Amino acid sequence: MTMSTINSCRDLQKELIGNQELPPDQLKKVSQLKDLLDKIFMLDNSKRATARECMSHPFIAEKI
Question: What would the mean pLDDT of 37-49 be, rounded to a whole number?
Answer without folding.
Answer: 94
